[in-house]
Amino acid sequence: MINVEHAAAMPAPSLGLLQGSVVDCLADGSFMVQAQGRGWHCQRSASCLLAPEEGDSVLLALAERRYWMLAVLERARAQTPSRLSVAGDLSICAPGGALRLDAGQRLAMAAPAFALEADTGECRVQALRYSGDELSAWVGAARWVGGTCETLWRTLSQVSQSLFRQVGGVEHVRAGHLDYQADDSLRLHARNTLITSQDLAKLDAQQIHVG
């Protein structure tokens, strides 16, 4: 059992600084810190971004008859992940330079909404796996260059004003039902053309020219 002391109840310590240990993290965001054999009720200062935990060694200061936690000096459990915490919104700015995030093992981001805005971008990933319910993209021009592309769709729809496809090797199409329709003209040309049918082959037109 420790005695709780407030700034108004006793004079400030030397230089207004105290080093103590966190004994309780209260629900209202304040803390109980034990120092000099007493308990001190304090608030976390805005500059103390590292969220304190029980047992951490912290630095207190007296200002305006209130004690404030200035910094976490030493973690009680070094293996516990450090957590940066602020009361409201957080913005990290580097107006005159670059901002870089490095992680030796894993970089994870989680939020209900995500927004990214930049004039140019570059992404290099050795292996990428995406999972989602819906993907929409509006681009002026898209270019894909690769070695192998495999797609598997339950339904695929393509709408284009002009479509050009060039295959240097062999193209195979296997379909249960194949339907081609052209409003103006349809042309099939090859050095050798073979049309076979198991049951019925039919040519229907006002004029049919052979040869």
Give an overview in words:
By secondary structure, the protein is an all-beta fold. It has strands spanning 4-5, 17-25, 31-35, 38-44, 57-63, 66-74. It has a domain at 4-74: Nucleic acid-binding proteins (OB fold (Dihydrolipoamide Acetyltransferase, E2P), Beta Barrel), CATH 2.40.50.140. Helices cover 0% and strands 18% of the residues. Strands 2-3-4-6-5 form a five-stranded mixed beta barrel. The chain is rod-shaped and about 110 Å long. It starts with a strand and ends in a 137-residue tail after the last strand.
Taking the sheet with the most strands, its summary is: 5 strands, mixed, barrel
Strand order of the largest sheet: 2-3-4-6-5
Q: Write the CATH fold name of the domain at 4-74.
A: OB fold (Dihydrolipoamide Acetyltransferase, E2P)
* Helical content class: under 10%
CATH class of the domain at 4-74: Mainly Beta
> Average pLDDT across residues?
88
CATH superfamily of the domain at 4-74: Nucleic acid-binding proteins
Low-confidence stretches: none
